[in-house]
Write a structure and sequence with these properties.
The complex is a heterodimer of chains A (334) and B (344).
Chain A lengths: L8 E3 H15 L3 E5 L15 H5 L4 E3 L4 H13 L3 E5 L10 H8 L2 H4 L9 E6 L14 H5 L5 E3 L4 H13 L4 E6 L6 E3 L13 E4 L4 E5 L2 H15 L4 E5 L2 E3 L3 H11 L2 E8 L4 H10 L12 E5 L8 H6 L4 H12 L4
Parallel strand pairs in A: 2-3, 2-4, 4-5, 5-7, 6-7, 10-11, 10-13, 13-14
Antiparallel strand pairs in A: 1-8, 6-12, 9-11
Chain B lengths: L17 H5 L2 H26 L14 H7 L8 E3 L5 H6 L4 H8 L33 H15 L5 E6 L6 H12 L4 E7 L2 E2 L2 E2 H4 L16 E5 L3 H16 L5 E6 L17 H8 L3 H11 L5 H24 L20
Parallel strand pairs in B: 1-2, 2-3, 3-7, 6-7
Antiparallel strand pairs in B: 4-5
Helix pairs in contact in B: 2-3, 2-11, 2-12, 3-9, 5-12, 6-7
The chains are: A alpha/beta (334), B alpha/beta (344).
Chain lengths: 334, 344
């Protein structure tokens, strides 16, 4: 993280916990639900000791029932509560997709706007923990494909807090994909209540030679790559998409018009995902006329996440991959 | 197993049926009227479909009227229900406006869902009806969530969760009942066992004889009643609602009933016999309810004819309202996907 030492720093997990704490102190309707989020503190320690402050009626351990748990959160949200539901691993949300896709996303529309579903769901996701194929996926494109949901991927502690507080103020269902490797990452987090707007990307580094659009942990890899590229005379602009539904078209297109070159980097499987959408957004707009080179997507391999640590690294984009793509683009090699 | 409490525990003076002892003449006549309204709504829907006035499909609940109306007798507008794809009856029982129901069926802007939901998603949150559901078992966890809200917010509301025999083999059923009991929530699970999940009979799909037997696994009272007997349904569900309201937790009530029509419009009834259908038609819940009221001198035959005529008139007016209503505007098709529309 790029922070000044005199600013207060929290980890990404602590920032999320602080957001939940602030919301629960302000609003009795806010409850937490999930597997082992009580005295255990959550599989990744995100809820921590909140149960001591708010009790087991508001920090509710659910049975291992992802479908039922998600549905209870949906029903509670329809009738006056503001539940924050944690899937222990985002992979387990596949067991709850019925309630996410058929119910949470569609109830408002199906009922002609008579009811809203202000539920917040948290999805610890991504690889890098050695947990192999069923505990390491990046499935955010699944939910981002569904109208009615909003889908965010905070990359920094400050945004993890601000986006969660924004999600709680949003009348519609918001899915928050948190990258597990980021939980321990520290960064400046402002005190008190604030929101990070849903639907707005952040320009993390300004540059003129090429645009790198990244999500979640790839934002940090892109920023690392940009530092190296700067020493080579290549000035990269790095955009943290932050929200993938609705996507911030204006920020991405403005950057591409400026730089004329685009790399999109994300951990999820490369095809049919966020990179395809960003690329199509550019191709379908006037920004296409500004492109000086083909768009490059860097995404996960067409492969489940393997166990062996070297293999695990190999299936998702790494800094050298970003460097290679950026150099090729900037030097007109493709 | 299963029958861990009995509706027959209720003692009424002179052995009169529960409903007669419990409800006023006006309440009973209103209940009969709702049963007629359901029957005539369904017949009107079927007729409209046959005449090409509407598209899509529908799941009719003709033959199940006592289950819908009997289960809602002790509910107020603050109490919630979740409903199913065969949900027209629940909607009427919970007090919906028939004109807005028909308008929704016709896909009109004046319908309950502004033409976006249709038959399978009719809801009326103002009366506590959180909606029908196109996913078998979809409403079960949602009902538990509504009960969690009631408990947490201290509203005193009870949620009645309607579902069919088909849903009792979905994981959502088991997860929902378990959580409702673990958290001791004010919810009543009402299974309308109409014998078939589409074409597959409960005998071929369900390991237990009575679906209410499954209550044992979730440590809650479970009871099986004649779902075509209005009084038996009201007695069982009222007792469960009272338990829920007193903080004694969830119950499972199984109303054994029968749908006279096929599963949906594509059904050719190849999985059941004409004799079986005729046998159940001879146990018409509306005729039985009318007889209950005349036997106990709650209403004369003339009054009952008047109630039926009233229902017929309301349905005719509702169809006229729906026919005259405006279609939704195509340019507003994405309205209500989000609370604040997102530019595409």
């Amino acid at each position: 993280m790029h922070t000044k030492t005199d600013l207060r720093e929290l980890s990404y997990a602590e920032a999320i916990r602080e957001a939940m704490d602030i919301a629960m102190a302000q609003d009795e309707r806010v409850i937490l639900m999930g597997e082992d989020i009580g005295v255990y503190g959550g599989a990744f320690g995100v809820t921590g000791d909140l149960i001591e402050k708010y009790g087991m009626d508001r920090v509710m351990d659910t049975p291992i029932s992802e479908l039922g748990g998600a549905g209870v959160a949906v029903g509670a949200a329809m009738t006056g509560l503001r539940p924050i539901f944690e899937f222990q691993f985002s992979d387990f949300a596949t067991l709850g997709m019925e309630q996410i896709v058929n119910q949470a996303a569609k109830i408002r529309y199906m009922l002609g706007g008579a009811v809203s579903v202000p539920v917040v769901m948290r999805f610890p996701s991504g690889s890098g923990t050695g947990a192999a194929a069923q505990h390491s996926q990046s499935l955010e494109a699944w939910t981002a494909h569904v109208p009615g949901l909003k889908v965010v991927q905070p990359a920094t502690p400050a945004d993890a807090k601000g986006l969660l507080l924004a999600a709680l103020e949003d009348p519609d269902p918001v899915m928050i994909y948190e990258h597990k490797i980021l939980y321990k990452m520290k960064g400046h987090v402002p005190e008190g209540h604030y929101t990070t707007p849903i639907g707005k990307a952040a320009v993390m580094r300004e540059g003129k030679d090429l645009t790198i659009v990244a999500t979640a942990i790839m934002v940090h890899k892109a920023l690392d790559a940009a530092e190296t590229l700067a020493t080579e005379g290549i000035d990269a602009e790095v955009i943290d998409l932050r929200t993938i539904r609705p996507m911030d078209r204006d920020t991405v297109l403005a950057s591409v018009r400026k730089t004329g070159r685009l790399v999109c980097v994300y951990e999820a499987v490369k095809t049919l995902g966020v990179g395809a959408e960003v690329s199509a957004m550019v191709a379908e707009s006037d920004a296409f006329d500004y492109l000086d080179a083909p768009i490059i997507r860097l995404g996960g391999a067409e492969c489940p996440i393997p166990y062996n640590p070297e293999l695990e690294k190999a299936v998702v984009p790494q800094v050298p991959d970003i460097l290679e793509a950026a150099r090729n683009l900037a030097k007109g090699r493709i | 197993m299963g029958r861990t409490f009995s509706v027959r525990d209720t003692v009424t003076p002179n052995n009169t049926p529960y409903a007669i002892a419990r409800y006023s003449a006006d309440e009973l006549k209103e209940a009969l009227k709702k049963m007629y309204l359901i029957r005539k709504f369904e017949e009107g829907a079927e007729d409209s479909y046959m005449r090409g006035l509407i598209h899509g499909t529908m799941h009719l609940s003709i033959g199940q009227e006592a289950s819908a109306v009997g289960s809602c007798m002790s509910l107020s507008d603050e109490d919630k229900i979740t409903s199913t794809h065969r949900g027209h009856g629940h909607c009427v029982a919970k007090g919906a406006d028939l004109s807005r129901m028909f308008a929704e069926f016709f896909g009109k802007e004046s319908g309950y869902c502004k033409g976006r939901g249709g038959s399978m998603h009719i809801a009326d949150p103002s009366k506590g009806n959180l909606g029908a559901n196109g996913i078998v078992g979809g409403g079960l966890p949602i009902a538990v969530g509504a009960a969690l809200s009631a408990k947490r917010l201290g509203t005193g509301a009870v949620t009645v969760c309607f579902f069919g025999d088909g849903a009792n083999n979905e994981g959502a059923f088991h997860e929902a009942l378990n959580m409702a009991k673990v958290w001791n929530l004010p919810v009543v699970f009402v299974c309308e066992n109409n014998k078939y999940g589409m074409s597959t009979s409960t005998e071929r799909s369900t390991a237990v004889k009575n679906i209410a037997d499954r209550a044992v696994a979730y440590a809650m009272p479970g009871v099986t009643v004649d779902g075509n007997d209005f009084s038996a349904v009201a007695e069982a569900v009222d007792a469960a609602v009272e338990r829920a309201r007193k903080g004694e937790g969830p119950s499972l009530v199984e109303n054994v009933t029968y749908r006279w029509r096929g599963h949906s419009k594509s059904d050719r009834n190849r999985y059941r016999t004409k004799e079986e259908i005729a046998e159940w038609q001879s146990r018409d819940p509306i005729a039985a309810m009318a007889k209950l009221l005349t036997d106990h001198k709650i209403a004369s035959e003339d009054e009952i004819a008047g109630i039926e005529a009233d229902a017929t008139r309301i349905i005719e007016e509702a169809i006229a309202f729906a026919t005259e209503g405006a279609n939704p505007k195509i340019e507003e098709v994405t309205r209500d996907v989000y609370t604040q529309e997102i530019a595409s």
